[in-house]
Amino acid sequence: MKRSKQIRLVLIGGISAGTLGGCTGKPSVSTTDVYTNNYYVPGVGYYHAPFRAFYAMPYNHFDPQTQLYFFGGQWGAGMMESITNVSSPTQETAQLAEARRTDISRGGFGGTHGGSHYWVGG
Prior knowledge:
Shape: globular
Structural class: alpha+beta
Helix content: 10-25%
Number of strands: 8
Order of helices and strands: HEEEEEEEEH
Number of helices: 2
Strand order of the largest sheet: 2-3-4
Distance between the termini: 14 Å
């Protein structure tokens, strides 16, 4: 019996940590901040500074099968070389990124935090 009480305390502690963790706000993607190449936002992707947008793959990702590099939503035979390695996203990009993020709690009681699911019951 003593062991099950200890387990309940651990589970309740985990629920509290998950709930409180959702209260700490993550920085939002905005047009006033600058981001470097390959800045990653969960659910959105990697930022490509010269293109001021997010993409599913990192900037200058190399695919060994095709021998091509990925940048700005396209594939090229060589790496994209640009003096722009820091920029601010466009207004449309920032809004879309905020809508697609998976690293923030959207609020309400039906959601989960951090991909974990909790069941509270006796």
